[in-house]
Amino acid sequence: MTDEKFIEQNQTVVKFIQLYCDDKHKNKDKKDGILKLFYNGKNLTSMPYSLCDECESLLLYANQRLQNCPHEIKPKCRNCPNPCYEKAQWKQMAKIMRTSGMKLGLIKIKRFFGAQI
Ligand SMILES: [Zn+2]
């Protein structure tokens, strides 16, 4: 995928996980961190976040999957012929996308994962 697409996909993930964590994990300790976007041998940009441990590790996982996505033109993850998420992470991510998506009006989520989620 292009650098722009890679950034956009990561932005969506950060936004959705952040929203979910702010909402569902209000009482957990949050860690401030910076997600550095590194793609095709380039440092693209970085994104700040403030998440609990659980959400942070999912964010880093998602970032890594995107980095390793073999598709030149990335399909929606939901429609991917070779889904790269492991089951537990996929379920967690689907839950986050669903919960945050309802808040945001389901537009981005469909673009990201496909319409059936
Ligand atoms: Zn959290």
Quick structural gist:
The protein has about 120 residues and is of the alpha+beta class.
Description:
With 117 residues, the chain is an alpha+beta fold. It has one domain. It contains four helices and two strands, in the order αββααα. The protein has helices at 3-24, 53-67, 87-104, 107-113; strands spanning 31-39, 42-51. The chain has a two-stranded antiparallel sheet with strand order 1-2. A hairpin with a 2-residue loop joins strand 1 (31-39) and strand 2 (42-51). Helix 1 (3-24) crosses helix 3 (87-104). It is globular, with a radius of gyration of 14 Å. It binds zinc ion. Zinc ion (ZN) binds next to helix 2. This is Nitrous oxide-stimulated promoter.
Structure characteristics:
117 residues, alpha+beta, binds zinc ion
Strand proportion: 15-25%
Walk across the major sheet and give the strand order: 1-2
Uncertain segments: none
Mean pLDDT: 89
The helix content is: 40-55%
Which small molecules are bound? zinc ion
Number of DSSP-assigned strands: 2
Largest sheet: 2 strands, antiparallel
Element-by-element helix/strand order: HEEHHH
Task: Report Rg.
Answer: 14 Å
Shape: globular
Structural class: alpha+beta
Count of all domains: 1
Count of helix runs = 4
Describe the secondary structure blueprint for this structure:
Blueprint: H1 3-24, E1 31-39, E2 42-51, H2 53-67, H3 87-104, H4 107-113
The structure holds zinc ion (ZN).
InterPro entries: Uncharacterised_YgbA (IPR020483)
Pfam families: YgbA_NO
Protein name: Nitrous oxide-stimulated promoter
